[in-house]
Amino acid sequence: MTASATSFPVKAVTVAGVDPSGGAGVLADLKTFSALGAYGCGVICALTAQNTQAVTGIDVVDPAFVKAQMQTLFDDIRLDTAKIGMLGTAPVIEAVAEVLAGARWREELRHRVVDPVMVAKSGDQLLQKPAVAMLREALLPQATVLTPNLPEAGVLLDARPPDTVAEMRRAAERLRRLLADQGQRHTHGTGCTLSSAIAALIPQRADVPTAVADARTYLLGALAAADSLRLSRTGQGHGPVHHFHALWRR
């Protein structure tokens, strides 16, 4: 499907967890969708108690209610693209994969960007270990684009994280999708932002490589402007990227 085949505005959904600080998760995804010209919807799969420095609690949504959110939303709104983020547990991954695998949604919701959220910037685990196999088997085969960071790529491949360009290329070939990570200080939500940017842009671009390239350009701009947000009282945490860097006056 090309940009010309998609109605305006592009309608995007994020299926992920909530970060109260707004730097990652559903809130960051919705800001990214909006900044890139897409109308955003959200399905909540997990709640976190989180700030720029740490994750202090996680409460996963009941899988049956995740399915209810998705089916109710999908029945009413014709969505063009989806970003799948933090799901937390194997039952939630299975529920999301089951809905997406439905014949109707395979036809309508063709663009699917999967960000296999496993570890927060703070080092906190966001995906239970038993859920990795379910992620590989049930969800990844449905992805249009996969956006793991390097540690996540290692987990998905059951190997150590790649740390040279050659290893990254080999890992990318095995995953058959893009690997992306950034190393700057204000990097909270880079994975969420990149994947949601790709999801928002795929229906608006001629092909996936162009969408990925433009999403990367957007993310680099958001990283470059991140210092201007100054959210944390202490300045010691991993601050978020600036999702509206091209829209807000400094």
Question: What can you see in these coordinates?
Answer:
It is a single chain. With 250 residues, the chain is of the alpha/beta class. It has one domain (3-228): UDP-N-acetylmuramoyl-L-alanine:D-glutamate ligase. 39% of the residues lie in helices and 15% in strands. The protein is built from nine helices and six strands, in the order βαββαβααβαβαααα. It has helices at 25-35, 63-76, 90-100, 103-108, 131-139, 150-156, 165-175, 190-201, 208-224; strands at residues 10-18, 38-50, 55-60, 81-84, 111-114, 145-146. A six-stranded mixed beta sheet has the order 3-2-1-4-5-6. Strand 5, helix 5 (131-139) and strand 6 form a beta-alpha-beta unit. Helix 1 (25-35) crosses helix 8 (190-201), helix 3 (90-100) runs parallel beside helix 5 and helix 8 (190-201) packs across helix 9 (208-224). The protein starts with 9 loop residues before the first strand and ends in a 26-residue tail after the last helix.
